[in-house]
Structure formats: C-alpha cells, structure tokens
C-alpha cells in the first residue's frame, strides 16, 4: 500500500459521508426516507439493486469459491442473479403497485392483518443477521488496508454506514450505492479481472496448470448448486432488503426492466469472481483459506493506485449490502414490530418529521446492535446460513402463496411460518447449521402446513381480497367496509 492507494480509499470514505449529508437534504417525508420517494428511474434503480445484492459474500466469497472450485464457484452468485431475474420478471411490477413499505405489510394486506407481527419478527431476525455478516467483513478489508485491529475495523466501518444511512435514509443509501456500483464495476470487472488473468498467464496457462475439474461447470456438485438455488434464489424473492428496493421504482416498467438489467449484471459478476479466484489458485496455490484469495491477489498483483481502487471496490460491496440490510432491519423493527406493539399505524404518504425522526432513531439503535453483535460473533457463514434458512423456510410459502394462490388464508400463513421456522431450527440443531436438510424439510413442512390449514379454514374475506386485487392492479381503492379498513390498516 502506498500513499496513493490510501488517498483513494480515504477520499472514497469521505465521499460516502458527503453523499449521506446530501441525501438528508432531499428527505422530507417517510416515503423519501424509506423508499427514496418511489421515484427512481431505470439507471439508478438497476445500479442500486445490483449494488445491494452483490455484497462482501458475492465479492470476497465469490472469489474464494473460484479459488476452491474453479469456474463452478460462480454458482452462489449466479443463484442470486437468477433470483433477482425471477423477482423482476414475474413479481416486481405487482409488488411495486402495492405501495407498502415492508413485506409484513404486504402479508397484512393479503391476509387481513393476522400474520404481520410474527412475519415481522422473522424478517427482522433475517435482516439483522444479514447486516451483521456484512459488518464483520469490514475486519478483513480494513486489516488489509490499514492493519487495524478487528474490533476497531468493525466499529469504524459500521459507524460510517450507520452515519450516512441515518442522515438521509434510502436517499443517502441510493446515492452511495450508485457510486459503489460504479466503483465495483471498474475495480472488479474492468481492472482486477483482466489483470488477474494476465498475471496467471492467460486461460491456456490456467488450464494447463490446474486440474480439469476447475473448468467444469458443475465441479462444485449438483447438490450444492440445488441448495444455493433454494436458499439464495428464493431468498431474493422475499427479502425485505430486496423488496424495499423494488418499492423505490418510479413505475412498473422501471421495476421490471431495471431489475432484469441488475440480475443480468449479477450473472456477469459471478463469472468474473470465479475466474479471478481460479487465477489466484494458479498464482498462490497454498493459501491458508480460500477467502484470502481476494485480498492476496489485490495486494500482490495490482499496481499502485489500482490497488486502492479495487480495495475501495471491496468496501463498496460490503457497504452497499450492509446499508441496505440496516435500513431494512430498522424499517421492520419500527414499522412492523414496534408500531404494532405500541398501537401505532404507519401512513403510506405524507408523513410528519416525527415519523422521519423515529425511523432515524431506529437506524441508530439497530446500527449499534449490529456493531455489537459483529464484534462478538466470528463465524460469518453460519450466521448468514441461519438468516437465510429462517427467511426461506418460514416466509417463502406465505408470500408466494399470497401472490399466486387465491385460496391461501391468514391461518394457513401463520401455520406455515410457525411450522417451517420450527422445522428449520430443529434440524439445524440436529443436523448442523450448514447441513442441507434444514432448508429441504423446512420448505416441505411450510408448504404442507400452508396448503392444509388454508383448505381447512374459512376463505379470506371477499372484501379483503377485493382491496388486495385492486392494489395489485394499481387501481384506486373502492370504498371498503369497517372490517376491511381495520384489516388493511397495517399497510
């Protein structure tokens, strides 16, 4: 590291704080603070969506998987891209038309207010652990850059993200994510990828040096690919951090086309990470851990200035996911859990400064909690696996069922969340956190409970379904009964 590299990184970090301040000046309502006023165009929408889904796990972890398995190491990030493509093509337009702020509010709207609190707690736990795993990654990056102690690195990186997120909410995060998207694209795709391949002698030399399995598309194993699709592709369909970005789209077309562009970008990023990892295997065949591959090749193979930019790209990846997860966690904590416990209702338009201030306070509280948990926790992979297993095992069926199956009921949704979540927890305790069985059987149990209980209980009230249908279609709501008004108040 030289003075030029340090300057690039410090300027980048200072720029993030400056954009946070600028975003604060554009924020005058809850809609601005939580979903950037629902007015992002295709360029900003696609860039920020790509930024949030491609975090430290996709960058550092994706290169590590390439180091360990070769080109098939791309499958984890490919699964993320496929999930984003499916969300954008099949669901994003309808989700955007609902004009809600959280996944739990969608469930309230669809089922009549019977499942929001429990689903909110599950979603809060998921977004909290997602923010924690991203924050822990600061330790690795800041150690390479500045040689900082782990705790100091986590506190420094976490404090910067909490600061700009609390200042302007989603507007600040959108502006910083757009910069982070550009930095990642230049640093990883345009600089690190070609330099790594050239340093390794080109593809012919890489093929001659490594076993044939490193260039097999399924070298990582079919069961692993299947598990990645179950966890990450389906996780993209239902995560609050992803939905909250869908809510920022200006209209249906932006949500669909911008998300499709972001998903396609993810596929290219996946292949690039795997190739970089494969090149690192040729250059450094005896690294202590696969996840060291990214930092090692950046530190040893890149010229002055470029090294700083690529490390800034790694910081971009981590910060974009961390900030997105943090605002999602705070939004759920404030508007799905605390609002219900205190009897408060969130308005979907024209909020007061008190509501903005309340959301800002929850970002600060959740940010401090995330930093504290990150300092105490070491195993990132296990924490992320627990988060996704709980999310997909507990919430996938009620959410997709609500979007696709008219006969699904609130009782069925509650049963699905409870049975799926408990099955996942029990099997993680029995088979181990990283085992495949928890997500396989958790999803099956959740599906059976959802269908069986829905069929065994009274169908959802027709008036509630009418409000739901109109919101999905983007139509103005018809006058509704007092019962329906109470059922949809959470949305």
Automatic annotation (TrEMBL):
Location of the protein in the cell: Membrane
GO cellular component, one term: plasma membrane
Keywords: Membrane, Transmembrane, Transmembrane helix, Transport
Pfam families: SSF (PF00474)
Keyword Transmembrane in record: yes
Principal subcellular localisation of the protein: membrane
Database matches in InterPro entries: Na/Glc_symporter_sf, Na/solute_symporter, Sodium:Solute_Symporter
Membrane topology: Multi-pass membrane protein
Domain of life from the UniProt record: Bacteria
CDD domains reported in the protein's UniProt record: SLC5sbd_u3 (cd11479)
GO molecular function terms attached to this record: transmembrane transporter activity
Keyword Lipid metabolism: no
Membrane-spanning residues: 6-24, 45-67, 73-96, 117-139, 151-174, 181-200, 220-239, 260-284, 309-333, 361-380, 386-405, 412-433, 439-457
PANTHER family (UniProt xref): SODIUM-SOLUTE SYMPORTER-RELATED (PTHR48086:SF7), SODIUM/PROLINE SYMPORTER-RELATED (PTHR48086)
Similarity comment: Belongs to the sodium:solute symporter (SSF) (TC 2.A.21) family.
Protein name, UniProt field: Na /solute symporter
